[in-house]
């Protein structure tokens, strides 16, 4: 447990080199749908083989505790996650959190912070005995439930019960009403069906059956396949498809085919009252008049659907959720249990939305979303999902890494503030704990992390003739939005010699011509206001004289990882 003291904000800023501004982008009446929006670390030498994107790291069949070094990771960035969580709690962004990090099945971090239940109402009146957060606290996962729905759909797909490009109406004839006859199952899974984002089902109908019929009768906002719009209605419909094809209610099917085989004993819809003390409290709701929502699903529409729906309703722990994530880096298996075939896993994680850049999506999973994946995002390789209650999961398949952050950020109000910056900082530190392999025995200069950076490494030049600058570079820089440049000062102004963005092909050697009248040389790393990638490294910068450059101004740091 890490709930005793809060670290001073300045310390966190100094160590992380990151912005500590937490933007408030949430609105009180929004539907419960997620929205976008210089010191070296004291560390032991990292594992020499299991570095960033290592192809040889073995994946354990099950999750088990490990040291950071045993997983090929660096301890210090993982430890500094504690400061990030405590800072967010001190700023009242959430009462508490649980963090979970595993690489190749090796659990390197699993910690709890703050409180799982702290307030009696939305006036922030404290409980007489607030309940401390524990590692095994059960959370309302909100929209992460969509991953359970997508996985269940693909279990049925493997049984040959449908094709992805089948019209939904082929299997649910009632769905064809109001122009939906051509909407496909694939379009539901990728949020390209044409549905609007959300309707207030909880204020309509008198039963689960009534409200599901309302979804079936709902007209489209856009023509199928023409627009990406993240919509709960897609997943509610998929929940109905599961029930139609299997003959079981969705919660029963998920239990039989996913959670029980994986040993997810703390994962369920509609948890019993006996577990309330282990469940993180959520919002105090006046409309609808539910009071403090605690032990029941927070999402109003899922609540009105008897707690069982395709878009929300699953409760789980960090450890349980990691088991589900693990099958997607272990070819569909956990331990001796196979949930999906390897080819189905690949299909789930393929980008289906190439026509909608920036809204990349697999079948259920979101791909490459830097607004919460940050430095763990590698193009469309990394996958994950968020939940409105303050939950998120990011998986880096290239690094076999699972990063889970579960919070109760809507307790006691959804107006606590945006979790996106906290999510990014968490993912950023997990990424930083995976070392870049630095060649040879010398260290490399690292530009660091942060929002709105302009980090300079500068040297004076005294040249009698034209020269050549040589250096090696490794970079994974947010493409276009962030950049690294090499610049010289001549004729009273700075001139760019080279620009770096995107991802290098490993370590690359560079050679640049330096004119004799250049009086200064600098490396500059600039970032925008949000997402960082893994960063920019420079090794052995020198002129053709053979001398290493000595930097008169240097905001970068030397690193051995």
Distance linking N and C termini: 28 Å
Q: Taking all residues together, what is the mean pLDDT?
A: 92
Structural class by SSE content: alpha+beta
Q: Helical segment tally?
A: 13
Supply the CATH architecture of the largest domain: 3-Layer(aba) Sandwich
Secondary structure: number of strands = 26
- Uncertain runs are 1-28, 38-43
- Strand share of the residues? 15-25%
Helicity, in percent? 10-25%
Classified in CATH, the superfamily of the largest domain is DD-peptidase/beta-lactamase superfamily
Shape: globular
Please name the CATH topology of the largest domain.
Beta-lactamase
Radius of gyration based on Cα positions: 25 Å
Q: Characterize the largest beta sheet: strand count, sense, and whether it forms a barrel.
A: 8 strands, mixed
The CATH C-level class name of the largest domain: Alpha Beta
The overall number of domains is 2
Topology:
Elements (H helix, E strand, L loop, with lengths): L8 H8 L47 E2 L9 H5 L1 H10 L5 E8 L2 E14 L6 E7 L6 E2 L4 H14 L26 H5 L18 H10 L14 H15 L3 H13 L5 E2 L14 E2 L5 E2 L7 H5 L9 E3 L1 H9 L6 E2 L2 E2 L3 H8 L16 E2 L2 H4 L9 E5 L3 E6 L4 E7 L12 H13 L11 E3 L7 E7 L6 E11 L5 E8 L2 E8 L1 E2 L4 E7 L5 E7 L8 E9 L9 E2 L2 E3 L2
Parallel strand pairs: 1-3
Antiparallel strand pairs: 2-3, 2-15, 3-4, 5-9, 6-9, 7-8, 10-11, 12-13, 13-14, 14-15, 16-24, 16-26, 17-23, 17-25, 18-21, 18-22, 18-24, 19-20, 19-23
